[in-house]
Design a protein that fits this description.
alpha/beta, binds 4-nitrophenyl phosphate
Length: 142
């Protein structure tokens, strides 16, 4: 089983989702990517790393990369952090490919329809709370 977490920059939400999910399900092959390429090669955003580290998630080895059309065949499941990410991924889907692309919030039941981007909201702990809840739900659904 291979799962790819996708956000916009791959420096806040999706690397955190990758790190949290990995700690919950170490047997699953997890990766993350961004639909945008501005931060390729960079480690996760400092304040995001600090908030994650405080909960025991070390994101320091992760490096941003851009989502690639080949990811549709490399992964069994693609998880988007919000509807814009999902639409941008779907736009790249090759003809005939049927890899499921889901919202991360499909795996929680509070009614949220996105993981708000803490790069803009500055609510890194709120993002972590939601990411942990979604990751737990995803583990249960596998
Ligand atoms: P992410 O947050 O999608 O959760 O990694 C972002 C970080 C930076 C930018 C966009 C989103 N940016 O445009 O620089």
């Amino acid at each position: 089983m291979k799962i790819l977490f996708v956000c916009l920059g791959n420096i806040c939400r999706s690397p955190t989702a990758e790190g949290v999910f990995r700690s919950f399900a170490p047997e699953v092959d997890a990766d993350s990517a961004g639909t945008g390429g501005w931060h390729v090669g960079e480690p996760p955003y400092g304040p995001m790393q600090t908030a994650a580290k405080a909960r025991g998630y070390d994101l320091s080895d992760l490096r941003a990369r851009q989502f690639d059309v080949a990811d549709f065949s490399r992964f069994d499941l693609i998880i988007a952090m919000d509807g814009d990410n999902l639409a941008n991924i779907e736009r790249l889907r090759p003809a005939g490919n049927e890899t499921p692309v889901r919202l991360f919030t499909d795996y929680e039941d509070s009614g949220a329809d996105a993981v708000p981007d803490p790069y803009y909201t500055r609510d890194f702990d709120g993002a972590l709370d939601l990411i942990e809840t979604c990751a737990r739900g995803l583990v249960t659904a596998l």
